[in-house]
Amino acid sequence: MSLLDGHVVVVGLGFGDEGKGAVVDALCAGQPTTAVVRFNGGAQAAHNVVADGRHHTFSQFGAGTFAGVPTHLSRFVLVEPFALAEEARRLEAAGVRDPLSLLSVDGGALLTTPFHIHANRAREDARGANRHGSCGKGVGETVWYSLLRGAAPGAVVENQEVIGTPGEAPTVADCARPSVLRRKLDALARFYAPLATPPHGIDELVALYRDFAGAVRITDGDETGRLADSGRLVFEGAQGVLLDQHHGFHPHTTWSTTTPHNARALLGGRPHAVVGVTRTYLTRHGAGPLPTESATVLARFPEAHNGTGEYQGSWRAGHLDAALLDYAIAACEGVDALAVTHLDASGLKVVPADGSPAVDLPDPLAWFGARLPVAVAGYGPDRAGYRLVETRSTINA
C-alpha cells in the first residue's frame, strides 16, 4: 500500500505559507477522501488553492472543498462563526453549492468572539514596534481566556495580567444553548471592558450564534474516530512548526500546536502517514526571526496571494535553511515523507546545516529526496502542477 492511501497528516515545516492548502487539495483530488480534518489553529489560516480556474484562500473550511470533500473542525480548532459565514459566501460565489452542508464542528471547540478579536488587536497595537506578528484574529486571546478559570484579577497567566474576573470559555456547543451562551458572553464583556469593547451587543451575538448552530452540524463524542473508521482522512494543519507554541521562537509564535501531535491524538493510534510541507525557499509573514532573509529572494519570487497584513505585517523571504528544516522535522518526532512546493522556482540556494554560506541548489527535488522520500511535488500554484509520487514508509504505520 502506498503511503498516501491511508490517513495522511499534513504539517508545515516552516513559518507557515509552505503550500499546505495546495497539497491537501492535491491529496483530496487524487483519490477518495472521507473528510478533511482541521486539527489546530483558527480563522488566521490562509491556505491558497487554485483549481479549474478558481482561487480561494481557505481559512476554516478544509482545502479539500474544491474537490468536494467535507470538512470536520475538531476540538482543537478555534471556531469563529462570523468569519466562517463570510468564507461560506465566498465559496458559494466560487461555485461551491451550499458550503455549510459540507461542514461539521466538534461542540467542544472553543468559540472565538468579537471580544477576543478586539482585545487581541488592542494588545498588538499597544506593542508598537515590538509587535509579535499576530494576525489580529483573536486566536491567542481565545486560548488565553480558556486558561483563566479560577484566576484572580492581577494574577499573571502566560505572561499576561488577568484584568478582571474571568468566566467559563464559550464553546461551539453553547451556540445551541442561549442561556448558557448569554452567561458566558456577559462574563466576557465584563472581563474585557477595560481593554476593548466591540460594537456587538450580547442579544445580537446570542441570536447570531443560534443561527450558526442551526446552519452547521455540531458533533459530540469521537466524531473523528467515526470518520476514520469509515474511510481515508486528510488532516490539515495550520501555520508551521517553526511557529509552534512549544517549538517556535517566542514571542513570535502562535497559541497552537502546529506539529502532528493533535492529529495523532484524534487518530487514537490508527495507522497514518505524516507529510511535511516545505517550499524550495523560506518565507515568513510578519515579525520574528528569518535567519536567511534576502531582499533578492523576495524580489525574485513575488507572491500572488500573500501581501502585507494590517496586523500580521509584511511578506518576507530567504534562502532554504537546512538547519531549520531538520529542526522542524525533529519537532514532529519525524515525518514519513515530504511535500515540496514551488519546484518551478529557479536560481535557488540553501544554507547548509552547519551555518556555512549559502550554496547553489540546482536540483532541489534531488536535495530533498536525499533526506526523505518526496510524496508530493508541486510546480506552480495550480492543482494541475501537483503530482503524487508512489511512496512507501512505515514510521507511523
TrEMBL record:
SMART domains: Adenylsucc_synt (SM00788). It is found in: Cytoplasm. GO terms for biological process: 'de novo' AMP biosynthetic process; IMP metabolic process. The active site is at D17 (proton acceptor), H47 (proton donor). GO terms for molecular function: adenylosuccinate synthase activity; GTP binding; magnesium ion binding. IMP binds at D17, E18, G19, K20, Q239, T254. Belongs to the adenylosuccinate synthetase family. Homodimer. Plays an important role in the de novo pathway of purine nucleotide biosynthesis. Catalyzes the first committed step in the biosynthesis of AMP from IMP. This is Adenylosuccinate synthetase. It comes from Amycolatopsis orientalis. The gene is purA.
